[in-house]
Amino acid sequence: MSLIAGITIGVVFKAFRLPLPAPPVLAGVMGVAGVYFGGIIASWAYKMFLQQ
Length: 52
Prior knowledge:
Elements: H1 2-15, H2 25-49
């Protein structure tokens, strides 16, 4: 669903010749990866230190 929404927004913005509401490609990918790996690290830390 989010992919379809993103494509739709991209098409609409390009149709009206507006700048895309997204960060540069590398920065966006790194941000998503950081959030994902941060969640994994937090889950690991919770299991290791708080569930004994």
